[in-house]
Amino acid sequence: MSVVSRRFADWIRRRQGPDGAVVTLERRRIYILPTGLGAAFGCMLFAMLLGSMNYATSLGFALTFLLAGLALVTLHECHNDLLGIEVRYAGAPPVFAGQHVRFDIALTNTASVPRYELELRAAESEAGPVDIGPGRTAVLALSVPTVRRGRLRLPRFSVATRHPANLCRAWTYVHMNAECIVYPAPAAPGTPPPFGADDSGGRSAVDRSDADFAGLRAAVPGDPPGRIAWKAYARSDELLLKQFAGGERQAEIFRWSALPDVDTEERLSILARWCLDAATADRSFGLELPSTFVPVGSGEQHLHRCLTALALFDADEPDEVPS
Amino acid sequence: MPHWLTVPVWITLLLFGCVLWRIVAERRGYPMPSKRTRILLTLLAFVAVFASFRTINGVEAGSALLMVMVALKFLEASSHRDQVVLTIVAYFVVFASLIDQQSIFIGAYLLVFVFVTTAGLLQIGRRGALRPVRATFALTGRMLLQAVPVMLALFVLFPRLSAPLWALPNDPQRAATGLSDSMTPGDITELAQSDEVAFRVEFVGEPPPPEALYWRGPVLSAFDGRRWSRTWAGPRVRRGDIEYLGEPTEYHVTLEPNDRGWTFALDLPREWSGVDGMTMADDYQLVVALRRGVAPHRQYRVVSHTRYLALDPLSDRQRAVLTRLPEGSNPRTLALVRGWRERGLDDDGVIDEALRMFREQPFRYTLTPPRLGTDSVDEFLFETRAGFCGHYASAFAVMMRAAGVPARVVTGYQGGELNAFRDHYTVRQSDAHAWAEVWLEGRGWTRVDPTAAVASERIELGAAASVRGRAASDFDFVRTLRFAWDALDVYWYSWVIGYGETRQRMLLERLGLDFATPALLSAAAIGAVAAIIALLAAYHGFAQRGRERKDPALRAFAAFCRRLARCGIAPPRIGETPTAFATRAERERPDLGAAIQQIAAAYVRARYEPDADGRALERLERLVRLFRPPRRGAPASRGTRCPANARASG
After folding, report:
1. Of A17, A119, A164, which has the smallest distance from its Cβ to B143's Cβ?
2. Chain A partners within 8 Å of B572 (Cβ)
3. In the annotation, is B389 catalytic?
4. Which of A22, A281, B357, B386 has the fewest other C-beta atoms within 10 Å?
5. Does some domain include residue B536?
């Protein structure tokens, strides 16, 4: 992005202020400029005007002015096509670094007339065009490449339209305060988690007979409700999860300290790989990082928690999209 | 395209051919010509245009070239971009055709054309799935209807120029219409049968009687025995002073275009305005020096006197030229007239004698006279004795010259038809007329119309009526239709086609805006267009908002968030509940905490547990209305707008 466009973007941002979760497009934030075709059309009109003046042809004037009126109406239609659209952030599933994030943006047409050819554009990705009927909502996905793990902020994007004749393009910039978690890219499979209960603590195996009650742990969202210790809840007002040793064949804790000689990002990648493998094999596992501890668990939610912990390990401010 | 009327046939054929080729190729999947073929075709087309016009510059050659390009474009228009270019060129082609054709039909055609082309533009400009054709037409119609007010405003207000910006070289191939430069009796026959309009006249005040409506046109002074013509290699006749008599007659003329710079005015004009460079020629005809490539003038105002004394001082040489007859032609006429002179008749006597001859001998007025030989006047006077105005004027002038009286033939129009729908006269080509002018001592040029001696009704009723008789009644349906159409045509020509600098000034004067300068007019035009667009916007906004289905609670809460944002509290984040948001806001502005919590609670109630009578919503809206937080840094206000007040009222 050049200096000029960067400064322009900053100015727009200052001018518009931050946006909330739902943005209703109003007049003062809709910009409009002619497209290349619009410019050509304008040149044609100018030539026609000169011709009409020179030859004093009234019908020429009439045609010129009719087309000029048409151009103005087009401008107005184009602007109107965006006016009042509700833009809503509709989530972004987490991805691994190197993959593309899909930021879902929902556009709602609250008016009683259809809206045409709405499209989204972020730095490098585009979505649409899509027509939205009265009262309908369309979800468009902005796909944004990721490089590093951590948080990725939804980049500034534009909602635009070139309806009705591609003579002009109306657009608005939206700065939504939304972000997506980017997991560390998992390392190539191959480094197996160190097994054995040695002091270096690669993973600890819990070896009990089937269906043995193994204790309680704090319940987290996503845990199966059937295993919540409801009696304990009644006593202590605290949600606890009953843990059994037999059903979960082996519970392992992946520890940060198990990989002493690897640099941070590499370590996180390897840990991510372990978590993934364990989840694929449907094993229970926990994660221990210097700053965070995720107790043993299993399931989709648990995996997400572990990978998020890895993603946010020592993470700095949310990443702006490279542009 | 209307160009079909003016461009060479081969261009029309080429266009049709290319379009047909394209359609067939699309249907059958034939390949389009290769790039090399297309380049070759383009070069050939250039050469062909050049061969047809001897130039590639100028209006006609230029538009022909444009048409050729459009035709060839059909052979390659495959990409989106090509189609767009084709559309724009199509607009331009039809524009170019308007330079010399502006009839009411062309206007109607123009509307259809713009509609279709705009529909094409909308379809081409469409991104995503194509719309159904009917939807496109509906959209086109809607947009064009909205564009019409803009067009009208600009059309009326846009400042018109009286002089062109630049001139293009004129085209050599223009055909002339109207009267011609010369007259051989027989020439006007065709004109007499044509119903085409020559010009229209609106009189300011009482029009003169029909027998005084002589519209002066080209004057023919050279005679070669058969043919009267305008140009001769003699000394110029100096125009003398004119003494105007009687009451002046003021009128506006709307001229059908003719390519010779001729204008027509009532015999004899005293003042004229409305066209730059209009002058009176030495033969009293009003002429305009035609600038090359400039559309001919259309409208002008004249003040004429139907009675006058045109006292040209004739020198001997001029007298000789104006009485010259070719050697040995028309001997019988010469002998006849010399006989009158020998009887001692003076100039007036000769004129009377000639007119009496027309009146008393069996001369008849006809539009289909027999063909005449070399000594046309002799044959006409002594054998056929049948002819129309040209014959009579010619014969009369020859007789005068034979008597030594300077004489010439004046062509123009006589009479005109009063339109019942609108107070104006329409003068048609069938009203073309020729009469004679003789120069008399002390009276100067005097009009003598020998046709009137033969067929006085020709002068009173017009050429067609004098032949047909007045069979048709005034209530004749066809006649009424024709009048109506003619009235429409007059409006079209005087207010649409003829709407130029003059008309604009007239209109502004009528509106009391005659002080408007072009700059003011431009400003008015821009203002009018802005007003129209604003009206459109307001209408759309109204139409939409009226049916908007936004939750009022949401709207109230949004207003609340906006006010908080103004004192530095960021709007709710994704996934942040109203309660969480309120907590965060309270942390940031403890002074507003209570009000914030109250509003958040009211919002949650109004939005998620709405009661039947809308009390919760009312309360929320009232709280938000009263919530006017002081900006951060400003001293906490204790005024009526402070949050405590909001709390009290809640």
Report:
1. A164
2. 20-21
3. yes
4. A281
5. no
Is B449 among the residues known to form the active site? Answer: yes
Choice among B283, B347, B449, B486 that is catalytic: B449
The model scores a pTM over 0.80:
no
**Is A316 within the bounds of a domain?**
no
Sign of CA dihedral B590, B594, B598, B599: negative
> Same structural domain for residues A122 and A170?
yes
Locate A241 and state its tokens: 């999860």
Render pLDDT for B45-83 as a digit per residue (tens, 0 to 9). 777 776 666 655 555 666 677 777 777 766 665 667 777
Q: Are B348 and B403 in contact (CB under 8 A)?
A: no
Please report, for the domain that includes residue A58, its CATH number: 2.60.40.10
Least confident of A14-18, A204-208, A257-261, B257-261: A204-208
Active site residue B433: yes
* Run of H or E including B110: helix B104-125
Residue A138: φ, ψ to 5° = -120, 140
Structural domain harbouring B579: 552-649
Q: What's the pLDDT at B639?
A: 38
Question: Encoding tokens for residue B560?
Answer: 């609340």
Helix then strand count (H, E) for chain A reads 6, 17
The residue of B80, B136, B154, B607 whose CB has the most chain A CBs within 10 angstroms, and thus the best one to mutate to test that interface, is B154
pLDDT at B576 over 50: yes
Q: Which two tokens stand for residue B641?
A: 């707008």
Looking at B13-22, B134-143, B160-169, B320-329, which range is the least confident one? B160-169
Are B419 and B486 spatial neighbours (Cβ–Cβ below 8 Å)? yes
CB atoms A66 and B533 under 8 Å: no
- Can you say how many angstroms the Cα of residue B481 is from the centroid of all Cα atoms in its chain? 23
- Count structural domains, chain B: 3
Distance in Å, alpha carbon of B271 to nearest chain A alpha carbon = 24
Range among A285-289, B60-64, B379-383, B504-508 with highest mean pLDDT value:
B379-383
